[in-house]
Amino acid sequence: MAAVLEQGLVSYLTQYAGLVSLISTRVYNFKIPQDATLPCLVYQRISTPRVLTHDTSGSGSDLSSPRFQFDAWATTSSSVKAITDQVRAAMNGKSGTIGTAGNAVTIQGALVDDEAPSYDPDTELFRSRSDYIIWHVD
Asked: What's the pTM?
């Protein structure tokens, strides 16, 4: 089910008008492709804590709260700030079904946990990292 959540997030973010106006559909998993156009957004799952329960059958809950990291990359600090602002507008407080048929997933809630801008002197690119906790049922 993990891949479905990632697919749903990509589908949702690549259709979110505020992001599309800034990065088109340039949303990548783990790293920026070698010849990618900037600005762009990179995401990765950091962890997946699960709500554990004990009942008479010994089964656990399917509720989890994965942490996702979204990295906005651009050549200017104002561009990464604008992307980060749109990720927050799209994700913070989001609940309901995201994605499209075949990769739709229902999330109970998504909340921003942390944001941090930075500059990479090696690539001369600006980056803004934001972490979100996304509650959903597998």
From this structure: 0.88
